[in-house]
């Protein structure tokens, strides 16, 4: 199938825009590959003994690690048992080490990275560390790989900031082939719609805390990724469509025998594409402009998380590639929405996988010319090999069969010829407030344009207090500023979703405008998020006053205020919280240097290229 002209044009302008920085990046990874210090044989015997001292007491493994010919695989793990999705990683290193040994390679845990659960920290001080933890994870990955004794890497991570951080860190050692190894989703529990209904009932005082806790525990009930299609599961889709997983690995349950077999297969493949192989596939070359365009297309086609309008630019920057929200917006206009998974529908990711899953989506997009089929991957000859699903062969090894020819449930998954929507669910808004993004895939078309008076707040807590006092029982656009990357680390404002949903269901015109962010589970209330410039950087959002009439128009892509904001002086920002305690003071330097939201927030690696 011929590549769609818009896909071609957007890719070309990204390539042109990024020419110098990408060339500098590729030169840097070539230097690392050719540097004698990256050859284990240049490591002194004493230093090598340190690297191999804990190799399980197996003298053969120790000697193999010192042998350049036999690949040594570094494992970067985000294991902890705070995150249900990461708990299964506890036993993965032993599986990987045994699998490596079976093909004449070795493996060792090179390092661990922090992994926080946004589901625990929502609305609490810890959430102010969340986005910036992505940069800490990237740096931690770099530290783990810094010993210079690895020929390939396996990254164990699933959730929100963890996968983007691992990608950024791995790209800083872009000469190493790297495969991402997922853990899979938990089994289906309480239906997402039922969970949301209990949350709203609790916000209205119609359900007790005991009722709420029972509901939440029923929804989040075991090991594996949360089953709604938020940032964590969007990450897994991205790793697949960007060619960093083995095909079909994303949504196999943690305790499924196939999950174990895929982990073994990923280890074997890491050895097969290592620096010592004849099929060398460094991650810095695999992730080029085509891979990032494919990622954005996949995000649109599946109704993925708004958080990736932050993460994908940051990940791309680590590879010397500059993405803009205009790239997202232009691709959204030509990519159809093929999947409806909660919060964009009632199904969860297990239902999505059973209906045909990512392999089906990739095949449909490839046949429509909406993906770069020739993009490099860690497996097979091209992305076409990812239009498949793994199964057990006759010898109990993993084999791949073609993806389902038809959707098994059209309410969840549809072909390009009959999509849920002819365009993707993510748009860019521009106007008198600057730039922002909005996810409309779950928003009813009757609410794509909202005009209402503003109510201005400087914290999530203030909005909750106003709701409790009945001060929001009207048509209202809730404006929350001083929530951007430089202000307080850009915490998610997801806990406002039930409150705003209640107001909307009461018949009010409701929307949210903020320089902060919502969860990857952004849902049915129109929300213009990631407004930049942010308030503390002189953004116009800081000038809005109560009663100003705001129009959010997701059809024309505009966000405007019916007031002369240029004539208003920029107010002194009174909500510069001291951010003492709860670890926040440790992140002051990262907050102060954070890039604008369009560049991903946090530290932008492009500034060093």
UniProtKB/TrEMBL annotation:
One Pfam family matching this protein: ILV_EDD_C
InterPro entries cross-referenced by the UniProt entry: 6-phosphgluc_deHydtase (IPR004786), Dihydro-acid_dehy_C (IPR042096), DiOHA_6PGluconate_deHydtase_CS (IPR020558), ILV_EDD_C (IPR056740), ILV_EDD_N (IPR000581), IlvD/EDD_N (IPR037237)
Protein's pathway: Carbohydrate metabolism; Entner-Doudoroff pathway
The protein's Enzyme Commission number: 4.2.1.12
Keywords, ordered alphabetically: 4Fe-4S, Carbohydrate metabolism, Gluconate utilization, Iron, Iron-sulfur, Lyase, Metal-binding
Ranges for domain Dihydroxy-acid/6-phosphogluconate dehydratase N-terminal: 70-385
Cellular component per GO, a single term: cytosol
Annotated ranges, domain Dihydroxy-acid/6-phosphogluconate dehydratase C-terminal: 411-600
SUPFAM superfamilies (UniProt xref): IlvD/EDD N-terminal domain-like, LeuD/IlvD-like
A Gene Ontology molecular function term of the record: phosphogluconate dehydratase activity
Gene3D superfamilies: IlvD/EDD C-terminal domain-like
Binding site residues for [4Fe-4S] cluster: 159, 226
Manner of cofactor binding, per the entry note: Binds 1 [4Fe-4S] cluster.
GO-annotated biological processes: D-gluconate metabolic process; Entner-Doudoroff pathway through 6-phosphogluconate
Family: Belongs to the IlvD/Edd family.
Function as written in the Swiss-Prot or TrEMBL entry: Catalyzes the dehydration of 6-phospho-D-gluconate to 2-dehydro-3-deoxy-6-phospho-D-gluconate.
UniProt-listed PANTHER family: D-XYLONATE DEHYDRATASE, PHOSPHOGLUCONATE DEHYDRATASE
Protein name: Phosphogluconate dehydratase
Species of origin: Puniceispirillum marinum (strain IMCC1322)
Organism taxonomic ancestry: Bacteria, Pseudomonadati, Pseudomonadota, Alphaproteobacteria, Candidatus Puniceispirillales
